[in-house]
Amino acid sequence: MHLHLVIPGLLWPSEQARGFADALPLPALTLLLGRGQTRRQHAESPEQAWRRIFKLAPETAADASLRRLGEDDGLRETDTVMCADPVHLHFAREHLLLADASELDIRDDEAQTLVASLNDVFGDIGRFEAPAPARWYLYPATLPTARFSPLGDVTSRPVAHFMPSGEDAAMWQRTMNEIQIHFHNHPLNAEREARGRRAINSVWLWGAGSLPPSLNAPAPALVMHSPLACGLARAAGVEPTAAAAFAALKAGDTLVELDTLLGASRYLDLEPWQAALIQLEADWFAPALAALRGRRLSRLTLSVPDERGSLSVDVTPSRLLQFWRRLESLEAFTIVNRL
User: Fold this and answer.
1) Is the Cβ–Cβ distance between 314 and 300 less than 8 Å?
2) In a domain? residue 72
3) Which residues in the chain come in under a pLDDT of 70?
4) Which end of the chain is more exposed for a tag (fewer CB within 10 A), N or C?
5) Final residue of a domain: which of 171, 192, 209?
6) Residue 97: which of 160, 182, 22 has the closest Cα?
């Protein structure tokens, strides 16, 4: 059995930070990283990593349509769709920064109210919908030709570096500005701020495209959590399953998405990141190590998408016997592999 774990956010993103993981009880993860064979790969976002794993051509624009498919297993959209995700824009010193919906606690009724207002005011550019409070979509009336930055690349960063570019970029930038003005004047945001909530003061457009004709599944069993990963699985003809821990897996080659570190790492929120890492040690790394030692696993792969250079670590039962390969900590592993 080959187990492949995809773990975005495992490497703490701040280059200046020290001590972020040294004191954490991570004996299984540390041993796996120390004994495994590490291969460095190109820098990539989680979205780009999923494209590579599913062998989706880089030029294929399909993130929004795949994520929408992940929202609904009965959906088979052929139309062009864009992500139009609700965000909060705010100034920090001289920069305009973006906070994504994970920081906004949006209720479903709030999402439906704002999306209905978008359809009333901006119906000429397409149809908006919100199948989930944190994930909205736009079915544009005309196919965009601009290049858009994924929301994950922009989260907690200055938006000026990530604005649409290309042939019709000015139109889409203008649309986003007009939506900001519309949301600024919407009474729902005044109510949110009165309750001490951040305003939903813009949308971030990205991922425009339609579903690819076909994909090949990278493993017979796909344990997915995020809508994008679930959509990729369904596009490859495999219904994704859920598993809260290694113990819930069935026998057979399996690809697992472990994304509980990602949000905290993007916001440099150390305590939730550490807590999630300790939980992964108990639920996944320690039992996977035991399975390797007992030869119930023939191979374990840890894939770590990272914008400074992604990593892939392969561990086999025979490599566990190489006792001279030692690693002090996850922090040491992070520093060494970013040199």
Assistant:
1) yes
2) no
3) 15-17, 59, 61, 73-78, 338-339
4) C
5) 209
6) 160
